[in-house]
Task: inverse folding
C-alpha cells in the first residue's frame, strides 16, 4: 500500500474520531454550563440591581405587539426601557410613544430615542451604542422589537449574573412555530429546530471557554465589563455585532462569559416568511462566523463548517467511493448528539413535530453546508435592506 492509498484509507476514520470527539466535548461543555447556571441561580441574593433594557427598532410596526405585551408582564421594579427608533419609516415610533404613555403611571420607566442618521458601518451596533449612552442601569439587557419575553425574563437573567466575575450572559432565542398559517409545516418546523441547534453549539463552546457567538436579542451585560473593553463603539465592525462583542470580551477582559438555558429566559422571536428571507438571515449569521474579526472564532467556525460540508458532500459519492463512509457517518452521529441536547434544553419551547428528528439530523448539515458555500463564493446578505 503506497502513501496515497494509506492516506485515503486512514483519513476518513481520523475525520470521524476528531469530528465526533469534538461534539462529545461540546456535550461535556453543555453539562458544565448547566451546572454553573444552577449554581449561579442558587447563589443569587435578593438585591434588585438597576437594569436598562435596550431595544433597537427599525420598521417593526407589524411585529412589536408581542414585545410590548410581554414588557407589561415583567415583574422587575428597577427596570428602565430604552427604545432606539433607528430611522423607522413606518408607524413604529407612534406605537412606541402610545405604549410609553399607556404605562407611564406604572413601575416601569420607558423612553424612546429617535435617530435621524446612522453612519454605520453596522447600523444596529450604532443604534445600540446610542441606547447605552442614555442608559443608567448596572446591567444592560438587550432584546429586539420582534421578540416576546417570558414574564420572569429580567429577573432570571439578573440571577444568572450573581457571580461578580461574570461579565455577560447569553440567553436562548427560539422561533415561534406558525402552525396553521400559509407556510408549509416543514419550513416553520425547521426554523424552530435550527435555531435551537445554533444555541446548542453556542452553549457547548461557552462551557469549554471558547465562546465566540451570541444572540444579541437575549443578552445581559455588566456595565463594568463593557467599560473594560472600551465600550460597544470599539467593537470591530461585523455582520454579527453581538458575536463580535462576545469575542472581544473573551479576548480583552478578565470577565467570564456564560450561557443561560432555563425556561424562564427562553425568548421567542418571529419566524421568517419565506425561504429567501431565512437564507438572507442565516447567511448573515454564518458569514459573521466565517469572517469574524476575532481569529480564534474565525478558525473554530471555519473548521466546524468545513468538516460538516465534507461529510455532506461525500454522501452522494459513497456508491463510487464506499471507503468514505466515516465522513457522512460522523456528521450523522454528531447531529444525533445535537438533536438530543436540543430537545433536552429547549424541548419545552419547541414544537412537537413528527418530522423533528429527520429535519435536524438530515437537513441541518445540508443547509449549513449550503450557507458556507454561499459565504465562500462571496454572497453578502442584507439586513433591513442594507448590505452587511
Result:
Amino acid at each position: 500500500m503506497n502513501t496515497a492509498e494509506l492516506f485515503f484509507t486512514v483519513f476518513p476514520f481520523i475525520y470521524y474520531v476528531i469530528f465526533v470527539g469534538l461534539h462529545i466535548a461540546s456535550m461535556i461543555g453543555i453539562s458544565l454550563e448547566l451546572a454553573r447556571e444552577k449554581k449561579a441561580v442558587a447563589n443569587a441574593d435578593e438585591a434588585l440591581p438597576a437594569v436598562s433594557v435596550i431595544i433597537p427598532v427599525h420598521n417593526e410596526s407589524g411585529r412589536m405587539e408581542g414585545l410590548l405585551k410581554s414588557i407589561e408582564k415583567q415583574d422587575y421594579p428597577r427596570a428602565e426601557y430604552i427604545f432606539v427608533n433607528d430611522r423607522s419609516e413606518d408607524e413604529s415610533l407612534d406605537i412606541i410613544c402610545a405604549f410609553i404613555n399607556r404605562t407611564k403611571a406604572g413601575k416601569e420607566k420607558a423612553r424612546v430615542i429617535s435617530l435621524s442618521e446612522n453612519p454605520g458601518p453596522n447600523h444596529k451596533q450604532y443604534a445600540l451604542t446610542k441606547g447605552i449612552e442614555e442608559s443608567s442601569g448596572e446591567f444592560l439587557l438587550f432584546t429586539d422589537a420582534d421578540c416576546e419575553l417570558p414574564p420572569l425574563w429580567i429577573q432570571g437573567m439578573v440571577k444568572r449574573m450573581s457571580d461578580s466575575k461574570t461579565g455577560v450572559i447569553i440567553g436562548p432565542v427560539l422561533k415561534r412555530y406558525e402552525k396553521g398559517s400559509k407556510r408549509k409545516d416543514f419550513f416553520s418546523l425547521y426554523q424552530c429546530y435550527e435555531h435551537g441547534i445554533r444555541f446548542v453549539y453556542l452553549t457547548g463552546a461557552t462551557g469549554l471557554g471558547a465562546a465566540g457567538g451570541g444572540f444579541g436579542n437575549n443578552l445581559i451585560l455588566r456595565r463594568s465589563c463593557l467599560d473594560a473593553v472600551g465600550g460597544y463603539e470599539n467593537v470591530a465592525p461585523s455582520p454579527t455585532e453581538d458575536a463580535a462583542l462576545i469575542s472581544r470580551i473573551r479576548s480583552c477582559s478578565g470577565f467570564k462569559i456564560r450561557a443561560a438555558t432555563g425556561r424562564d429566559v427562553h425568548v421567542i422571536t418571529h419566524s421568517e416568511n419565506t425561504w429567501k428571507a431565512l437564507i438572507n438571515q442565516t447567511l448573515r449569521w454564518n458569514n459573521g462566523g466565517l469572517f469574524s474579526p476575532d481569529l480564534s472564532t474565525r478558525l473554530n467556525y471555519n473548521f466546524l463548517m468545513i468538516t460538516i460540508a465534507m461529510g455532506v458532500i461525500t454522501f452522494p459519492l459513497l456508491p463510487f467511493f464506499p471507503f468514505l463512509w466515516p465522513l457522512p457517518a460522523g456528521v450523522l452521529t454528531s447531529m444525533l448528539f445535537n438533536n438530543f441536547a436540543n430537545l433536552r434544553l429547549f424541548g419545552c419551547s419547541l414544537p412537537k413535530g413528527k418530522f423533528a428528528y429527520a429535519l435536524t439530523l438530515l437537513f441541518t448539515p445540508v443547509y449549513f453546508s449550503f450557507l458556507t458555500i454561499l459565504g465562500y463564493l462571496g454572497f453578502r446578505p442584507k439586513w433591513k435592506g442594507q448590505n452587511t
